[in-house]
């Protein structure tokens, strides 16, 4: 599964159309914010669009988890099916353009960043699309990129519509894009950026010259090679995601156990809960020291505080070391044994 994210009119729908070399049901393309819904483009026996409420309850589809975002989201979600050899291997997720200002946050009737992070966990590759005239990363887009935390290895950046500027401007645009990304993605490593013009029109040689045309063709080949590798790595990716979730569940159990341990037996439970939520960072540090856990595996403190405020810590279960031991044994023995069964997982 490949998800495309970006501000409006950066060429997300056109990118899918370009790879499929044909239109897909429900595709709307234009310079204004056209795609107003999440569209999953997947293989099907005939060309049709299936509404979100229907697709979310189908047991053979992997979208049951989206029901938690409510009917307001499902009305803005649809599945576009068509027979196509590429779609037999890869499913595309086309997203609404990220808008700037308050309208992104307050006027969407569903949790946009929540939905993107749900898809990010399920996807194999996340393509962030930019165009030379929309390099500014708005606060909303920054929030969306932050929601991809933990999936940084899946992110690829595409500078689309690059033939709209000449070579000198392209060099400046590339520098500005890297500068903007450096402010948002908190990693010391450089992101891989693919430069090109991913649409069906021939490259505008008058702007970029012959060198630019050659560069675009090479970049396009690299990106397509990257996408072709996805089905090969799908098995490894599933095991990887499973291990990641098992580790996250183990750390969650440690945190909940620690919070429950700190609660008083009789009096002043509400005050104790508020104190624990306020000093959550210190509680995380205690858990980290006690069980020798890496700091990078802990959840986001602010988000954890928000969720925790809706629960009564006193009603949590005490931690059962036996259960945590079972998870450790599974990671140490069962997963390696499972991997031995796949002499070659790509066959």
Automatic annotation (TrEMBL):
<keyword id="KW-0106">Calcium</keyword>
<feature type="domain" description="Dynamin-type G">
    <location>
        <begin position="1"/>
        <end position="232"/>
    </location>
</feature>
<protein>
    <recommendedName>
        <fullName>Dynamin-type G domain-containing protein</fullName>
    </recommendedName>
</protein>
<dbReference type="InterPro" id="IPR045063">
    <property type="entry name" value="Dynamin_N"/>
</dbReference>
<dbReference type="GO" id="GO:0006897">
    <property type="term" value="P:endocytosis"/>
</dbReference>
<dbReference type="Pfam" id="PF00350">
    <property type="entry name" value="Dynamin_N"/>
</dbReference>
<keyword id="KW-0472">Membrane</keyword>
<keyword id="KW-0479">Metal-binding</keyword>
<keyword id="KW-1003">Cell membrane</keyword>
<keyword id="KW-0967">Endosome</keyword>
<dbReference type="GO" id="GO:0005525">
    <property type="term" value="F:GTP binding"/>
</dbReference>
<dbReference type="InterPro" id="IPR030381">
    <property type="entry name" value="G_DYNAMIN_dom"/>
</dbReference>
<dbReference type="GO" id="GO:0046872">
    <property type="term" value="F:metal ion binding"/>
</dbReference>
<dbReference type="Pfam" id="PF18150">
    <property type="entry name" value="DUF5600"/>
</dbReference>
<dbReference type="GO" id="GO:0051260">
    <property type="term" value="P:protein homooligomerization"/>
</dbReference>
<dbReference type="GO" id="GO:0016197">
    <property type="term" value="P:endosomal transport"/>
</dbReference>
<dbReference type="GO" id="GO:0005886">
    <property type="term" value="C:plasma membrane"/>
</dbReference>
<dbReference type="GO" id="GO:0010008">
    <property type="term" value="C:endosome membrane"/>
</dbReference>
<keyword id="KW-0547">Nucleotide-binding</keyword>
<dbReference type="InterPro" id="IPR040990">
    <property type="entry name" value="DUF5600"/>
</dbReference>
<dbReference type="InterPro" id="IPR027417">
    <property type="entry name" value="P-loop_NTPase"/>
</dbReference>
């Amino acid at each position: 599964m490949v998800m495309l994210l970006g501000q409006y009119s950066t060429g997300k729908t056109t990118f899918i159309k370009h790879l499929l070399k044909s239109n897909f049901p429900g595709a709307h393309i234009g310079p204004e914010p056209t795609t107003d819904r999440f569209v999953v483009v997947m293989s099907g026996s005939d060309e049709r669009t299936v509404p979100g409420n229907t697709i979310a309850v189908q047991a053979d589809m992997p979208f049951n988890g989206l029901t938690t975002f409510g009917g307001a989201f499902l009305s803005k979600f649809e599945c576009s099916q068509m027979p196509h050899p590429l779609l037999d291997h890869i499913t595309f997720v086309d997203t609404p353009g990220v808008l700037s200002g308050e309208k992104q946050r307050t006027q969407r009737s569903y949790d946009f960043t929540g939905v993107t992070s749900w898809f990010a966990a399920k996807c194999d590759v996340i393509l962030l699309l930019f165009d030379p005239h929309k390099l500014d990363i708005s606060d909303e887009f920054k929030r969306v990129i932050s929601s991809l935390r933990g999936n940084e290895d899946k992110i690829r950046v595409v500078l689309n519509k690059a033939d709209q500027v000449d070579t000198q401007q392209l060099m400046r645009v590339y520098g500005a894009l890297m500068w903007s990304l450096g402010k948002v993605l908190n990693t010391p490593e450089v992101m891989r950026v693919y430069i090109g013009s991913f649409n069906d029109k021939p490259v505008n040689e008058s702007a970029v010259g012959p060198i630019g045309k050659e560069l675009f063709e090479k970049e396009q080949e690299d990106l397509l090679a990257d996408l072709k590798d996805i089905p090969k790595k799908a098995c490894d990716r599933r095991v990887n995601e499973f291990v990641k979730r098992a580790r996250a569940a183990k750390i969650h159990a440690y945190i909940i156990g620690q919070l429950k341990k700190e609660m008083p037996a009789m009096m002043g439970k509400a005050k104790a809960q508020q104190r624990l939520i306020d000093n959550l960072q210190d509680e995380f540090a205690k858990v980290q020291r006690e069980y020798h856990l890496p700091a990078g595996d802990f959840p986001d403190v602010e988000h954890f505080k928000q969720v925790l405020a809706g629960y009564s810590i006193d009603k949590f279960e005490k931690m059962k070391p036996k259960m945590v031991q079972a998870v450790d044994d599974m990671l140490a023995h069962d997963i390696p044994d499972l991997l031995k069964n796949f002499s070659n997982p790509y066959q």
